[in-house]
Amino acid sequence: MSADQQARAGIQNPGSQAALRGLNEQRILATLRTHGTLTQAALARSTGLSTATISNIVKSMVSTGRVTTTPTTSSGRRALGVTVLDEADVAVGIDFGRSHVRVVLAKSGFRLLDEEFTALEVGHHVEASIDVAARMLEALCERTNTSRSQLIGAGIGIPGPIDHRTNMVIRGAILPEWVDLDIDALLRRALDLPVFIDNDSNLGALAQITWGEHQECANLCFLKIGGGIGSGLILNSSLHYGNLGVTGEIGHSTIFDQGLICRCGNRGCLETVASTGIMVELLSRTENAPVSIENIIERAEAGDSATLRVIDDVGVAVGHALANVANLINPEVIVLGGPLAPLGEALLAPIRRGLQRHAIPVIGENTTLCMSMLGDRAEALGAAALVLRQSAALP
């Protein structure tokens, strides 16, 4: 068939400018679906296309309503953030915690539609908790006029180590009721959706590079301090899973050889000196009733000396453990999340001291330490991002 015949038949020459432009558009869209909103400079780095090509294609796609641009800043300079608009698919993100479940709905392009939170009893029954999440999902769909056909899957965050060969929670989790259960089958049956299960700290890390302010960060550590302490690792812009998927268990690194026995069976783990449960226990000894996390934050803000001392000890221990991580992988940024995030600099300062004391000086001095800007929704947003990235990867 001649070129004229191809043109009349509507067939593009694979080497034509139009075909090349089409391929470049698809490359840009795939990158945005995987990473969320990106600046044009970040798009150029991710796709390998020139900044001029990115700029021209983005302008064209804005005019056809496929993407939108919003003013932003990158490295202190004004820039344009680019976001996909032409997708109807909706991802579900579910974060199961020790005493809560949070469900979010997000559209392609990493746009949050709605969210819902429900408190659960500590030690909640697995099937009952999943039923609660399923009802929350139905309520969100009704509230946002989202049809079941739009849902492409549910990301599931679990606070515990998960063996990715079986998708089962293994021993040492702060939700022992979930250990050794086929939660994949339970969730698929209750939600009637494909499910993608991951450790909540991994999802918190993923949220930082998709929803947070660190989209252009290639090497990042996310640390969640709660009833347990876990971390998620982004290495070369991807989640690091290691051999079995059981990574980032910084809460079970030994801090004191002669310390308390940990629930994992070892002695002197970071969780035995720096979890929120230990903080509550220490600060409740002179009280008539146990203090809460909210009490700890309020007392710290009021300058209570005992509270600040406990926070300082916790921070230095966490910084010590993070120094080992930083020496090993040299992340650009360490982001802290969890219920203690409102403490801000009161917690960051002792962690920074511990990090700089035990890390190689050049690493300690050049590792950025900050609080997550996503609050307590980070893990659920990361769960939705996991679905969106899986969808973008499909042929």
What is the number of beta strands? 15
- Unreliably modeled segments: 1-12
Strand percentage lies at 15-25%
Task: Tell me, rounded to a whole number, the average pLDDT.
Answer: 88
Structure class: alpha/beta
Total DSSP helices: 14
N-to-C CA distance: 29 Å
CATH class of the largest domain: Alpha Beta
Q: Indicate the percent of residues in helices.
A: 40-55%
The ordered string of helix (H) and strand (E) elements is: HHEHHEEEEEHEEEHEHEEEHHHHEHHEH
Sheet with the most strands: spatial strand order: 6-5-4-7-10
Report the principal-axis shape: globular
Q: Sheet bearing the most strands, described? A: 5 strands, mixed
The named CATH superfamily of the largest domain = ATPase, nucleotide binding domain
Protein described:
The protein is of the alpha/beta class and 395 residues long. It has three domains: 12-84, Winged helix-like DNA-binding domain superfamily/Winged helix DNA-binding domain (Arc Repressor Mutant, subunit A, Orthogonal Bundle); 90-205, ATPase, nucleotide binding domain (Nucleotidyltransferase, domain 5, 2-Layer Sandwich), CATH 3.30.420.40; 213-373, ATPase, nucleotide binding domain (Nucleotidyltransferase, domain 5), CATH 3.30.420.40. Helices cover 43% and strands 21% of the residues. The protein is built from 14 helices and 15 strands. The protein has helices at residues 3-9, 17-35, 40-47, 51-63, 126-144, 183-191, 200-210, 271-274, 276-284, 293-301, 305-329, 345-358, 361-365, 378-393; strands at 38-39, 67-74, 77-84, 90-96, 100-107, 111-119, 151-158, 162-163, 168-169, 195-199, 220-225, 229-235, 238-239, 333-337, 368-371. Helix 7 (200-210) crosses helix 14 (378-393). The protein is globular, with a radius of gyration of 23 Å. It starts with a helix and ends with a helix. The model is unreliable at 1-12 (pLDDT under 50). GO terms for molecular function: kinase activity. It comes from Paeniglutamicibacter kerguelensis.
